[in-house]
Amino acid sequence: MSIQKELELLIKDEVLVEIEDYIDELFEIIAAKKEDADTREELTQMQEMKKDFEDMLVDLVHGDIDDEECHEIIAEIKEMREEN
Asked: Residues 1-11: pLDDT tens digits?
């Protein structure tokens, strides 16, 4: 499997799923009227992050991300997930 395909699957099958789940949790907090300013800010940031990853998938499909960049992105994703 190419590194581009590996990154694509990581984003589709794991990263976006986790982001969408978290966005759903934030919406539930807001719907229950238990949010604060930080919750709304977090929601905005997560929606922007989701859009960034969706844009990245488009770039992958068009072959705009080379092997080296894929390795860097995968490393960043792993680091980000370990922090959480």
From this structure: 899 999 999 99
Q: Specify whether the CB–CB gap between 66 and 46 falls below 8 A.
A: no
pTM of the predicted model as reported, rounded to 2 decimal places: 0.87
Question: How far apart, in whole angstroms, are the C-alpha atoms of residue 83 and residue 9?
Answer: 21
Query: Which residue, among 52, 69, 60, 58, has the nearest Cα to 15 in the 3D structure?
Result: 52
Measure the CA–CA gap between 27 and 45, rounded to whole angstroms.
13
Residue 50 and residue 74: Cα distance in Å, rounded? 16
d(CA 17, CA 38): 22
pLDDT in tens, 36-61: 888 989 999 999 999 999 999 999 99
Cβ atoms < 10 Å from Cβ of 9 = 12
